[in-house]
């Protein structure tokens, strides 16, 4: 096994210690022309729900939760998955508009690729709710439901700093922090996903002071989002890039201490590459600290086993609830409540938004955050499967 720095610094953290973003409520507005027939009963109305892919666990959970929430209110639901294919998603939304759905909830593959569909929806008076991924370059986006994506990046960076021993359990400078430089590598999400840029900005704003003072170094020199990007958030792409980084920059006695990874599928690909290259099976025996996002069950199992250091939990039950609330507001002639009307400029307008909190998940708090809340059972965590 290769020799490298090992932190062994995972201490108990309750949910209250996880970094979250406080928000206050204010009102938002809409862009639809005439709007739906608010006198119709819910059972006479249909909501089109466009999701990007069935490949990842979280999108299956999101689609299911949105559908169930709408159906509980009596609405019909047309739920479509696009298999991460932009033309397929465009056609699905076109069909929903042709079939005269009363509202649209869209989790886009590429937020800039649906301008024609958004124009058509506005012409038909169909309100459009962007779900977790902002729809860009169009005035015809009525509302946005998401998490505080900048804070996701901040949480990921702080998790990395904590895992490296630079920050203590209170996320303050550790008294016994290791002397740098500590070597890290950086991964980003898909450039056509607007959220990837928020994640990156939050993480880099947090890490750059440590890079500038020499505490952290990136031996590959790949420190721009374009260099670190992972098209379509694909696990295989992340694994291949990590393999190339190891071959090119860590083929001798160079140490790698941590990897900033913005999502769990990428994290698992990175970890597989590290394990295949002999960097250890767990953090305790030398595996570098790897971050993540989405608290997928396979990843939570790895965190429980001490393999992956952290992930970010975004409770999609709450996100789906806000999307359902927004759709129901439009369909009943009301305006949905926004708590952010300043930060989400899509290139044509600032879209009124509802932002939700996030939680940092570590080995010593996953039970409190995920099991005690009923999101997963302990048996699911043990097996790594739903």
Automatic annotation (TrEMBL):
Signal peptide annotation: 1-25
Entry-linked CDD domains: PBP1_ChvE
Location in or out of the cell: Cell envelope
PROSITE patterns registered for this protein in UniProt: PROKAR_LIPOPROTEIN
InterPro entries assigned to the protein according to its UniProt record, in alphabetical order: Bact_Solute-Bind_Prot2, ChvE-like, Peripla_BP_I, SBP_2_dom
Source organism, top-level taxon: Bacteria
Record's keyword annotation contains Signal: yes
Name under which the protein is recorded: Sugar ABC transporter substrate-binding protein
Organism whose genome encodes this protein: Nesterenkonia rhizosphaerae
